[in-house]
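Why do we care about 3D structure at all? Because function follows from shape, and shape follows, mostly, from sequence. That is the central idea of this module. The next example makes it concrete: a single protein chain, its amino acid sequence, and then its structure expressed as tokens.
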Amino acid sequence: MNPKKRETKSNDQYFVAIRIRGTVGRNPRIEHTLQLLRLPKRYNATLLEKSSEVMGMLRKVKDFITWGEINSGTLDAMIKKRGRMEGNKKISNDFLKEKLGFKSTQELSDSLLNKKITLKKLWESGLKSVFRLHPPKGGFKKSVKRPFKSMGELGYRGEAINKLLEKMV
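And the structure:
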């Protein structure tokens, strides 16, 4: 039997997770999971591949982060403005050409979302896996103590993560 393969859009292969709340005095297991997700501080973001293991970790720390599917334009802006190389230097076109063979960050983000390059190769080339963001311009519009679907900012938000990222980049 040949099972039907689900067609996936290019933008639903990766999640972006943003840590919104700190964990002072919280459960050490939750803090450990946040460290495994590469979210050590508030307003840190990271790209994550969509898998059942990652989904389990995201659900475990859902009261401290928000996540959703990222699109190409937002990923390009995030890499261009907030991406850093080893040594905390901004990403340059020379770095992209030498290490990865891309002409621009737009080409890199399109290739990443179309699975032409993996996150592992991207991190091994010298790009840092954590994006340090600003607090959102204009602040959060809802409570940071409630889930997104219940008049809050936490948890899964799907495509709406791109609006939040635009305010934070």
